[in-house]
Design brief:
This protein has 500 residues and is an all-alpha fold. The protein has one domain. The protein contains 22 helices and two strands. It has helices at 4-8, 23-28, 49-67, 69-75, 81-85, 91-98, 123-135, 144-173, 181-185, 188-193, 199-214, 218-229, 239-249, 252-276, 278-281, 283-290, 298-306, 312-336, 343-357, 366-376, 380-405, 415-441, and strands at residues 490-492, 495-497. A two-stranded antiparallel sheet has the order 1-2. A hairpin with a 2-residue loop joins strand 1 (490-492) and strand 2. Its main location: membrane. This is Glycosyltransferase family 87 protein. It is a multi-pass membrane protein.
Length: 500
Amino acid sequence: MPSAEDTSVHQEPSVVPPTRQDEIAAAGSELIGGPAGRWARFGTGPLTPVRVIVLVMIGMFALGMVQKIPCYDWAWFRGTSSQYTHACYSDIPHLFVGRGFADGLVPYADRLSGDMAYLEYPVLTGLFMQIASWLTLTSSSDPIQQREQMYWMANAGMLMICAVILVVCVARTHRRRPWDALLVALAPALALTATINWDLLAIALTAAAMLMWSRGRNLAFGILIGLATAAKLYPVLLLGPLLVLCWRAGKWRAYGAALFGAAASWLLVNLPVMAYAPEGWKKFYTFSQERQIDYGSFWLIITQRTGRPIDVDTVNTASVLMMIVLCAGIAGLALAAPHRPRFAQLAFLVVAAFILTNKVYSPQYVLWLIPLAALARPRWRDFLVWQACEVMYFLGIWFYLAYTTSGDKHQGLPQEGYQVAIALHLLGTLYLCALIVRDVLVPEKDPVRRDGSDDPSGGVLDGAPDRVALAQVHTRPDPHGAPAVEGPRVEWGAGRVGAE
């Protein structure tokens, strides 16, 4: 007969509001009456956590749209510097004309005028852009300004749907921590950058994939990751940390299903375009290779400080080598950690490594990290420190562009100030990376594992014993596999990982 202590680790604790675990959340709750009392009930009634988070997300997204009003009204269409001084720039209205949607050209098949021969976006993003052009309720006889405005509105509406899907998936990924998704909904950088580009499509698909993995639907995870990769390249990186975690846990069948689903869905989306318009299809990949050093990267600081350009092939090679070294370090961390890291932790580290070593760090790239940060390090203080750095960079890049496009007036931020802004948002990302690495090495510091949880978003990895590990630990025996690696028991917080 198992004792109460033995069975308690298998019971799923009730949802705990963040005001009981996070001092910043508790202080912020004073705006709405203070922290929840002991008799507060969550998950019942009309205002469930998910519904509240969705409403907050819609409100914040709408505020982000309001912030773009100066550009929507006139700044996109009257010169270049005004859209920067008002910090409301967006690629969307400019590419409506620049990529042929205003002229009814077919993405990837029809050649564009100018230097950009074909649309330089992955296939699923191109389809998203095309659908938005179909939803633009104007005719070719209408003024081009009105058509660009309506195209931006159509895209904004579709991106808002992606944002809602994103927060719903994040809220449901950690069953016991739905309120962590409030970090995503209230992220100021999300509101400011959501409608700069089309990144939210891939981000929503990636969040849905992580939800599927957390529920043990490994094939569905792979299918969604493949679709996300068909919209943006970065989601494929999540297969790397998942490989290491499944290797350590011996979950090869689960990883095989995920890998098969990713490859199959990516090919299903891409093969028709590859066959019908091969030159247009490969433009995204050739453009990524040929693109010069651009805004937001440490490479730009180097070239500006030295006054010497760096050959793009040299940058590409160096970036790949640094990424390989960092990924090897992350893999070593995953294998040597005293307890197997959580999937979200390694996912954040790998995507952050990709962004930090890349030759461009556009302001909207922060969107890639926001949901991963909410799952990997759900602490309001650290999240807000990082977000403050990103908001400062958001303002810095637009004021720098205003400075460079305002002629002799030089209104805005000079080059030296912009370099400080770049360094600030790079350091903000590194700060969050350092905290996550510490959480991996010292599990009792991990907010998610404070109650004795293992990996609530880990699916088949949650509570699984180790098969391969550089540091031996004692884990819960696997009822379907070989005995676990034996070693010292790991304990933290009020609970315990492992069994007697």
